[in-house]
Structure to design on (140 residues):
């Protein structure tokens, strides 16, 4: 399997509860390398641009308000099959459906406030990485 890069976000519910280190340990234990990372606070408009694919969904307003409500940690994870591996470590969107041991099973508060974002395919990973990082900031 090829080495890939994927975009991860530690969401406001998790930064509020001081869970950045515990979540990063889950990535590193799974063999994912954090090759870029920064803590930022998004505006609601920036959150809306990032989640533009969901703009017609009923949860869009709530989602973008939540993502702008407190700092997030944006990061690039690298490893063999990193996109699918990260989705595995994250667990299902709804924590009620997330497998034991996954980030969302252990830490998520609800389907909306679910602690992490992860890219879902190679094309979206490339787009989402370039939304937050320049090539100079990626040190693999
Ligand atoms: N979301 C929500 N309600 C829903 C579905 C999704 O609030 O019914 C939020 C949730 O924070 C989720 C994000 O919208 O992580 C993006 O949804 P997606 O279906 O892409 O889930 P993900 O890829 O994050 O698992
Ligand atoms: Mg998604």
């Amino acid at each position: 399997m090829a080495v890939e890069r994927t975009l991860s976000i530690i969401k406001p519910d998790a930064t509020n509860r001081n869970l950045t280190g515990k979540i990063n340990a889950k990535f590193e234990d799974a063999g994912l390398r954090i090759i870029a990372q920064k803590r930022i606070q998004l505006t609601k408009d920036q959150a809306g641009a990032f989640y533009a694919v969901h703009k017609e969904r009923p949860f869009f307003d709530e989602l973008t308000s939540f993502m702008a409500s407190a700092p997030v940690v944006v990061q690039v994870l690298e490893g063999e099959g990193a996109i699918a591996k990260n989705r595995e470590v994250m667990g299902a969107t709804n924590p009620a459906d997330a497998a034991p041991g996954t980030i969302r099973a252990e830490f998520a508060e609800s389907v909306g406030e679910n602690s992490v974002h992860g890219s879902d395919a190679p094309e979206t990973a490339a787009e989402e990485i370039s939304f937050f990082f320049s090539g100079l900031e990626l040190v693999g």
